[in-house]
Amino acid sequence: MKKLTFKELEFSRQFILSPHKLSVPGSWSQLRIEKNYLSCHQLLNVVQVKDLVLLGYVIDPYEPLKSNEEILESLSNELNNLESFFNAVEKLTGRFVFIIKLEGEYVVIGDATHSRPILYYKSQVNHDLWIGSTTKILSKYIELEKSDNYDSFVNSNYYKNNINECWWPGENSDCKNVKRLFPNFYLDLSKVESIRYWPKKDLQEYSFDEAVKLGQKILEGSMVGANERFKLAFGVTCGLDSRIILAASKKIKNEILYFTNKHQDMSRSHPDLSVTKKMLAGLKGKYRVYSLNTKVPETFLDLVKNNVSFSRLRKVTAAWSALHCFENKYTVISGNIWEVVRLYYGDKKIKEITAIDLAKLEKMDDLKFAVDAFEQWLTKYAETCGHLESINVLDIFYWEHRLAFWAGQTWVECDASREMFLPYNNSFLLRAFLSVDKKYREHKSDELFHSLIKTMWPEAFNYPINPKDYPFSARVKDFLKRKLKIAD
């Protein structure tokens, strides 16, 4: 694939569904879907089989050698009703959006965490429906106004204190009348309504051993499937989530490029560098360290800024490094998402939680519109799911808000520089692990996840995970580097 110019990377891997044909760059693909037109950036894969359109890619971990087309052929046989289709899609890994026609009506559904965001806008004048990846691509073709909450967001303590990790809260976006589709919801195009399809009943409980066996099957199968499609690179750290993915890569270890990003505030003795280097040498994996000291060109900063709202410098720096190192030739594996099954916010019943509590978890309690947005979500959740005893509402909040909007923004920021592969992005896997007794999933235990590593690649467990004996002198040095920006 030829190296694309910054102009050609505008709205990289994004899509827009419009009521009329748009004037888009000649390299983009366009597809007529009934009365609508689908326009996709040249790096976004599009496959159509019968009444099923795929944007992105899907992997079947149970039959990892299947292509997108073969998987869609199988899925097309499941288009008897929405429930059967959802049951089939939940077992797939990937980064995808589906547009499907069922019983004469169209619906849109995303992957487990909506790693390819889905936003929609209905004109208040002519009632036309527009769907796109970001408010940025929508605003290129239709006139949108900033949200009334825009100024309060950028002037908030939350935004100022989290400039590199911020995310816009709630269903409503940063533009008026543009909404975002939550994970576990689908969009009914005829009604222009988002509808929750999961959870509808209590979780099927998995035992410790059953979860380990299932996790191994899905993660290893997903890695083999991704390796069949892409040239893979994996950013390895000392973290637990990273180690699980490393263990899942054993079957394809000779074909993956393992690497670590060295941020400016990291000394060479940082465990993500020192331990990882020793570990990959011991496991005989091809390993490199990429420095993020490279100054990001203003043209690239502007590119990402124009591709996604509230682009974050730390994420853009990583994206530029990836473009500089990989030139869009590698698909990069990420270990994000797994926190959803590790009681990130703790364990609470629906009756014990308020919108203020949710806002405080994200340090957004100074944002009234965030509290209001969480109140709206919490009320609707209580109406449809409040009776479910096996589900921790804080896990679902993390899944449908932080993963969808914090991580979702990260993937869009990355899209200018590389495709991403997210092994944990499988609904069936996440739901199964959420059903396991919490005593095995808590951070103070992690017994379940350690067992998963030892089952997939025992030798990978022989190296420290998040070592607590990180030398004090190195910690001080890293602290000073963060504060004073001194060189290594």
Q: Could you write a compact summary of the structure shown?
A:
With 488 residues, this protein is an alpha+beta fold.
Key attributes of the depicted protein:
488 residues, alpha+beta, Glutamine Phosphoribosylpyrophosphate, subunit 1, domain 1, Rossmann fold, 2 domains, six-stranded antiparallel β-sheet, 16 helices, 17 strands, 37% helix, globular
Characterization of this structure:
- This protein has about 500 residues and is an alpha+beta fold.
- It folds into two domains: about 180 residues, Aminohydrolase, N-terminal nucleophile (Ntn) domain (Glutamine Phosphoribosylpyrophosphate, subunit 1, domain 1, 4-Layer Sandwich); about 210 residues, 3-Layer(aba) Sandwich (Rossmann fold), CATH 3.40.50.620.
- It contains 16 helices and 17 strands.
- α6 crosses α15 and α11 packs across α12.
The parts where pLDDT drops under 50 for at least 5 residues are 472-488
In which order are the strands of the major sheet placed? 2-3-1-9-8-10
What portion of residues belong to β-strands?
A: 15-25%
Count the DSSP helices. 16
- The percent of residues in helical segments reads 25-40%
The span between the termini is 36 Å
Structural class of the helix and strand makeup? alpha+beta
Shape: globular
Compute the CA-based radius of gyration.
22 Å
How many β-strand stretches?
17
Largest sheet descriptor: 6 strands, antiparallel
Assembly of the depicted chains = single chain
- Global mean pLDDT: 92
CATH architecture of the largest domain: 3-Layer(aba) Sandwich
What is the domain tally?
2
Instruction: Tell me the CATH topology of the largest domain.
Output: Rossmann fold
User: Which CATH top level class of the largest domain fits?
Assistant: Alpha Beta
| CATH level-four homologous superfamily name of the largest domain | HUPs
